[in-house]
Amino acid sequence: MSEIIYSVIIPCYNVQDKIVNCLQSVLSQSIHSDNYEVIVVDDGSTDSTNARIMEFTDFTNVVIRSLAKNSGLSSARNVGIRLAKGSILCFLDSDMTVEPTWLQQFQTRLEDKNIVGIIGDCKLPKDVKPNKLDHYFYSPIRGARQFSEEEALGFQWFLFNNTAVRKFAIDAVGGFNEDFISYGGEDTELAIRIWESFPNGLRYSSKAVSEHHHQRSLSEFCETIENYGKTNFPRLIKAYPKYKKQLGSDWVNSLKGYIVFNPILGNFVLIFNSIFNSYVLVRYQVIYSVVKGARKSL
Prior knowledge:
It is globular and about 60 Å long. The chain has helices spanning about 20-25, 50-55, 75-85, 100-110, 130-135, 165-175, 185-195, 220-230, 230-240, 245, 255-260, 265-275, 280-295; strands at about 5-10, 35-40, 60-65, 90, 95-100, 115-125, 160-165, 200-210. Strands 3-2-1-4-7-6-8-5 form an 8-stranded mixed beta sheet. The protein is built from 13 helices and 8 strands. By secondary structure, it is of the alpha/beta class. It has 2 domains: about 5-210, Alpha-Beta Complex (Spore Coat Polysaccharide Biosynthesis Protein SpsA, Chain A), CATH 3.90.550; about 220-295, no CATH class.
């Protein structure tokens, strides 16, 4: 049997309608199945997710762990990390599908030994009509997409929904912080630790593509991200006060913050955004939601 190089870690919770397509896409990779394993961690699902996962027990390169209760994304990913045998850890969200060349694209980029982590691109499924939030999410000027593939990324651009990281880097800094239970912040917290140890080691790949099968409305996402501002965002700032500016904390309680992000201007943006399809207006609403949540926490 060949050496396992890639450990694909897929945490899942109540994704009974999506997990089969996700696993089928990962198990259809162009590289030999002996070279990668797929670690599926069911984080205490209450629907039929676990039953759907068990349909893949005949695959020799699939490892399944079912947790007794829901403990959060960080905990589920850490279970996968502890089980991993590969030298490259690939993290993928359970509501995503990938192309057959997904792992091969990571493999090509990681031939450069100076690179310790790569974040792939994320796209809307081709058969889904984009809404206001999608135009923002998948904009070419948002996130890591705004950088060339040769530029070293800062920690704030590095997420773990479609990512490959050398295992020695994770071992060096430790896994995900399990204090982050609700949505948001756990990716950035780990990315900070990796970036501090390997400041020139993070990159972006436009070719390691995933499709995200979880369309949300702008109002739904803003509600979620406001809760992040209330819970995990303050936790992140408290742990890393020296990165307040990079994390956006300087907009919460500063004079400039109250001038730019306030109820009056926020209502005007809400009205204009209902009329126009604008990246800038959506971005304002998203950031203001985080700011509102953070102000409530104080």
